[in-house]
Amino acid sequence: MSNNSSCMTCGSSGGLCGGKALVTLKEGVWTSNPLAIQVLGICSALAVTNKLSNSLVMGAALLFVCVGSNLFVSLLRNHIPHRIRMVAEVAIIATFVILFDQFLRAYYWEMSKQLGPYVGLIITNCIVMGRAEAFALQNPPLVSMVDGVANGIGYGVALAIIGFARELFGSGQVVFFGMTINLGDWYTPNQLMVLAPGAFFVFGVLIAIFNVLKGSDAEEDKK
Amino acid sequence: MSDTSAWIILVAAVFTNNILLSNFLGMCSFIACSSQVETALGLGTAVTFVMTLTTMINYAIYHFVLHPLQLGHLQFIVFIAVIAAFVQLVEMIVERFSPKLYFALGIFLPLITVNCAILGASLFAIIRNYTFVQTLGFGFGAGVGWLVAIVLMAGLQQKMRYSDIPKPFAGVPVAMIITCVMAMAFMGFAGMVTIQ
After folding, report:
1. B24 and A95 in contact by Cβ < 8 A?
2. Distances in whole angstroms, Cα of residue A169 to Cα of each of A111, A204, A209, B35
3. Fewest CB atoms within 10 A around its CB: which of A8, A96, A100, B143?
4. Is residue B192 part of a domain?
5. B28, A222: Cβ pair inside 8 Å?
6. Helix (H) or strand (E) holding A48
7. Is B73's CB within 8 Å of A124's CB?
């Protein structure tokens, strides 16, 4: 886990006023994208991205949990004793994860079965914990919620890109809400992209692309 | 599923269904702690130890307490609490009785609480409806599989320090590409034994 970058994130946006909202939003989605720049919470990012629809549901799950836990950690930030703050954070996060898991089981059983244990594993997702620890503990509730939204979106977007690439190259077409994007007959689907190695490969390339886009200053930030 | 021998599950968990290379669990510490073979070995041993025991404890808690009381939806919070408490306990016991082991293993123990492979192994054992003996085989096998993967990776990373990597790929991206190749190599074991 890259502690340095999360600390820097909170240092540069540690203001107490709500006017920081835009800056916070931009940081979560782009400049310190949790997945592509900070490389946090990659387990689920790799596991559920074999399809675009799975990736989006996972992104939604993380958004919900991150917003909820950030809000409550922030509301309680003056009441949680410093020494047991980790336990308190985990309890809050787990509560929201259970809520989302129950919701999926009740209304989208098929999806819940496909995601398997990975919904539950949001508890140990470093992003949620990292945001609660680095941001929500120091900031008022509203900004913390914005931070949760920003990180959720940043994570979701990165996930969607990976999911899109893997489904497109893995099965030759992307099916999404009834819409189908087809690569055509000339392309022979590469099964490997849907399997485990494809996940590692696409994710590695995605980070490399982010590195190029962000230029050399991002490289120095990371160190 | 229920009649598969625990030995087969053990072998499968190490090779064909490696918890890191095919289930992507424990990636964070895999990326962060895989630059030195010794460190990787220490962390891997600690993970194997904790994983074997916590999957069994969680199995018992789920099937004898949570399931009969219809509290299955509380499994996440209970499992993570068990893991955290267990790690704390092990840390205290090891520190008291074997300072040498504590220095070798101690620094890795706190890291383990947030290792998703541990929680993941417990959840997989419940989802796949393993019996107690199968859970034992799976927990140990998954731990060993993780150990094998991270040690191999550390060995490669040590060699890689001297290679000329294109700048955008330096660091995590190239680690991912290497893991990709490793995962492909491990797919060669597929068909030997299968679970799930």
Report:
1. no
2. 22, 16, 18, 32
3. A8
4. no
5. no
6. none
7. no
pLDDT-wise least confident of A58-62, A69-73, A179-183, B106-110: B106-110
| Closest chain A residue by Cα to residue B185 | A197
Q: What CA–CA distance (Å, rounded) separates A93 from A145?
A: 14
**Backbone dihedral angles phi then psi of residue B35, each to the nearest 5 degrees:** -100, -20
Domain that holds residue B171: 6-187
Element at B108 (helix H, strand E): none
* Nearest-by-Cβ selection for B172 from A39, A44, A197: A39
Contact B172, A37 (CB under 8 A): no
* Distance spanning both ends of chain B, measured CA to CA: 8
Q: Are B13 and B192 in contact (CB under 8 A)?
A: no
pTM of the predicted protein model: 0.81
Tokens of B94: 């090891």
Report helix, strand or coil for A174: strand
**pLDDT of A19:** 52
For A205-216, give the DSSP string: HHHHHHHHHHHH
* Chain centre distance of CA B114: 11
Answer whether residue B194 is part of any domain.
no
SS3 B25: coil
Q: In this structure, what token pair is assigned to residue B147?
A: 């150990």
- In whole angstroms, give the CA distance from residue B100 to residue B60: 32
pLDDT at residue A106 greater than cutoff 80: yes
Contact across the interface for B114 and A101, Cβ inside 8 Å: no
Interface with A, mutate which of B172, B181, B196 (most A CBs under 10 A): B172
- The token duo for A149 is 């939204």
Burial A52-69 (b: 16+ CB within 10 A, else e): bbbbbbbbebbbbbbbbb
Residues of B within 8 A of A43 (CB-CB) are 24-28, 116, 120
* CB distance A68 to A136 below 8 Å: no
Tally: H helices and E strands in chain B: 9, 0
Domain count, chain B: 1
Closest to B9 measured CA to CA, from B113, B129, B116, B120: B129
Give the minimum alpha-carbon distance from A150 to chain B in angstroms, rounded to a whole number. Answer: 21
Identity of the amino acid at B27 = M
Band of the pLDDT at A65, cuts 50, 70, 90? very high
